[in-house]
Amino acid sequence: MIFESHAHYDDTAFDADREALLKQCQEQGIETIVNVSASLASVKSTLQLAEQHAFIYAAVGIHPDEVGELNEEAMGWLREQCLHPKTVAVGEIGLDYYWDKEKHELQKYWFHRQMELAKELKLPIIVHSREAAADTLEAVRKAHTPELKGVIHCFSYTPEIAKEYLNMGYYIGIGGVITFKNAKKLKEVVKMLPLERILLETDCPYLAPEPYRGKRNSSLNLPYVAETIGQLKGVAAEEVIRVTAANARALYFGKSNHTCGR
Ligand code: NI
Questions:
Q1: pLDDT at residue 257, as a whole number
Q2: What's the pLDDT at 255?
């Protein structure tokens, strides 16, 4: 059974067939989905999906591109949504210097505040980091405590940086990019990573794996990701699926052998 650790099923790309697709996911062995929010509006739509579907859980947080909408009042509201029984993580939060929509200082400030919120509520974090390797590592180090757990989602940096996160106890999220022919650096990262520290993710509707690169992505494509990880690590795809699901349960539910939430 596959654990989808990072999806955006509230995205408008799924408006035409969302319910049918989610039903298909369940029928085809997707055991659990963590739907990840990025803006105040998507916190609402994510929690709505989690309320409607037993196998969907919510991550509540504001993406670095959207931190312009944060203020103290919004943070108070966000905190309340983190107390929802189906919220299992704070995310996605972090730094994005690729799109560079908000000033770096503002991104760093709200990244820090949301990490503090996660610590207060004992929730793991889902970190988004693009073209911001050094600043993200610095911010995560600064917030680090042995209790704060999390995943660096859609990891795009070097094996050396991955090691830094492993040393702090983080998981590394691997998705469709690993199947791309030009993903040399990421393949090196996966070869180095212990299977016990990898989470399977799509980031759907984005980043569909080969052979569907460029098309709308969904959790149904996760076997292609597991297959490629298995090839790189010399284990069967089934083993990748089994271990990464146990990893995700440990991170999001705090236990390695149950699927029924916190
Ligand atoms: Ni995402």
A1: 43
A2: 61
Domain segments of the chain as ranges: 2-254
pLDDT tens, residue by residue, 110-144: 999 999 999 999 999 999 999 999 999 999 999 99
Positions of the chain with pLDDT under 50? 256-262
Q: Is residue 107 classed exposed, middle or buried when 0-12, 13-18 and 19+ CB atoms within 10 A define those classes?
A: buried
Task: Give dist(CA 4, CA 6) in Å, integer.
Answer: 6
Burial 232-259 (b: 16+ CB within 10 A, else e): bbeeebeebbbbbbbbbbbbbbeeeeee
| pLDDT for the residue 260 | 41
As residues whose CB is below 5 A from the ion ligand 1, the structure lists 203
CA of 7 to the centre of ligand 1 (A): 6
| C-alpha dihedral (145, 146, 151, 152), degrees to nearest 10 | 50
- The tokens 């210097």 sit on which residue? 97
Distance of CA 204 from the midpoint of ligand 1 (Å): 7
The pLDDT value given to residue 101: 87
Q: Tell me which CATH homologous superfamily contains domain 2-254.
A: Metal-dependent hydrolases (3.20.20.140)
